[in-house]
Amino acid sequence: MARVVVDVMLKPEILDPQGQAVQRALPRLGFEGIADVRQGKRFELEVEGPVDDAALSRIHEMAETFLANTVIEDFTVHVDEPAEARS
Amino acid sequence: MARVVVDVMLKPEILDPQGQAVQRALPRLGFEGIADVRQGKRFELEVEGPVDDAALSRIHEMAETFLANTVIEDFTVHVDEPAEARS
């Protein structure tokens, strides 16, 4: 089984209140040097069978019609190696 | 300015109701062949200055103490090339 990741982020021109809230809190927590923070969604899809072009275009369609609101969000689709031990 | 991405996902052993809701909806929308869906958060941080080891360890600490709840979530940190035109 392969893993495909769909990352969904607000379009750059769309205000991101969640990201701004995180950014404003960072200096109070002692973290300087972060000019901007954007927060979005990450979907990890475990795909049955080979991840060929047909599967990827299906997932692209799925992202476009269901996982992202393409009026205000952009998305990217990429095949992810099975996550090694995450920290 | 460089962009560092922090991906935060629920630990594998933690139930993911949002991911399950997405997974159950997919066949109704005509998308077959997706065995599992996990949903998490993606933070894009625009970092002032060079992203050297010191900056990365600071961001790692930021993720550990603020962006992720490490009791139930795992996170990864990676440097991201400026996003080319997203779809």
From TrEMBL, chains A, B:
It is found in: Cytoplasm. It is an enzyme of class 6 (ligase). Keywords: ATP-binding, Cytoplasm, Ligase, Nucleotide-binding, Purine biosynthesis. Pfam families: PurS (PF02700). Pathway: Purine metabolism; IMP biosynthesis via de novo pathway; 5-amino-1-(5-phospho-D-ribosyl)imidazole from N(2)-formyl-N(1)-(5-phospho-D-ribosyl)glycinamide: step 1/2. InterPro entries: PurS (IPR003850), PurS-like_sf (IPR036604). It comes from the Bacteria. Part of the FGAM synthase complex composed of 1 PurL, 1 PurQ and 2 PurS subunits. Part of the phosphoribosylformylglycinamidine synthase complex involved in the purines biosynthetic pathway. Catalyzes the ATP-dependent conversion of formylglycinamide ribonucleotide (FGAR) and glutamine to yield formylglycinamidine ribonucleotide (FGAM) and glutamate. The FGAM synthase complex is composed of three subunits. PurQ produces an ammonia molecule by converting glutamine to glutamate. PurL transfers the ammonia molecule to FGAR to form FGAM in an ATP-dependent manner. This is Phosphoribosylformylglycinamidine synthase subunit PurS. The lineage of its organism: Bacteria, Bacillati, Actinomycetota, Actinomycetes, Kitasatosporales. The gene is purS.
